[in-house]
From TrEMBL:
InterPro entries documented for this protein: Acyl_CoA_acyltransferase, GNAT_dom
Listed transmembrane segments: none
Protein name: GNAT family N-acetyltransferase
Domain named N-acetyltransferase: residues: 16-187
Length: 218
């Protein structure tokens, strides 16, 4: 089938739901991810991109999340004590129907769900949506210096394509190298099986918040 940009609609998993995010949701998102430790991991261009002031954060997020160009989702917990809580955002974007390529990115999570089922299930849902929509290659990338993010990407089963040197500026003005990974349509069944196995190992219990210390060491 030809690649087509999918409609923005809810994607439901066992542990989370990806719901279309709108600018009206940004105050709630601010409470979840406006933390300097989230930005230190590379989100928003790195530590210098952090906005401590709520209004500054909201103005920045309206531009950064590219609502007009990406399928932007809010990540909400399903079930348990925190049912419905917004714990992050992620997007599917950079749609190139001619080359059947798309990009999963613009991702950040509340520290209290780091190391939980949130990220693997979010990736399971978005990779699945992209391949079901006819895309043949889905890119995912990180600052080459961000060991934590690169490790998380590699655990998904994505393949390192290379490092794009001096690719883009961080928020502090320094140039970053970008590590570029991808999953191809033919690789997806194996990657999907690996993600299901990781989620199955969690036993199906709803996501509970970790302490920040637990999250940072997960």
């Amino acid at each position: 089938m030809p690649a087509v940009r999918p409609p923005v609609a809810p994607l439901r998993g066992r542990y989370i739901c990806l719901e279309p995010l709108s600018p009206a949701d940004l105050p709630e998102l601010c409470k979840a991810i406006a933390d300097p430790r989230v930005f230190a991991g590379g989100f928003g261009g790195g530590s210098a991109g952090y906005r401590a002031d709520r209004d500054d954060f909201l103005a920045w997020a309206r531009e950064y999340l590219q609502f007009d160009r990406c399928n932007v989702y809010g990540v909400r917990i399903r079930g348990g004590a925190h049912d419905g809580a917004l714990v992050g955002t992620t997007s599917l974007g950079d749609f190139d129907e001619a080359t059947e390529s798309a990009h999963i990115g613009w991702t950040a999570y509340d520290l209290r769900v780091w190391g939980s089922a949130v990220n693997p299930e979010a990736k399971l849902l978005l990779f699945g949506l992209a391949f079901e929509s006819g895309f043949g290659r889905v890119k995912i990338q990180a600052d080459a210096a961000n060991v934590r993010s690169r490790s998380a990407i590699e655990r998904l089963g994505a393949v390192l394509e290379g490092v794009h040197r001096r690719d883009k500026r961080r928020a502090d003005g320094a140039w970053r190298d970008t590590a570029i990974y991808s999953v191809l349509r033919g690789e997806w069944p194996a990657v999907r099986s690996g993600l299901h196995a990781r989620l199955d190992a969690l036993g199906g219990e709803p996501i509970d918040y970790r302490t920040v210390d637990e999250a940072l060491t997960a």
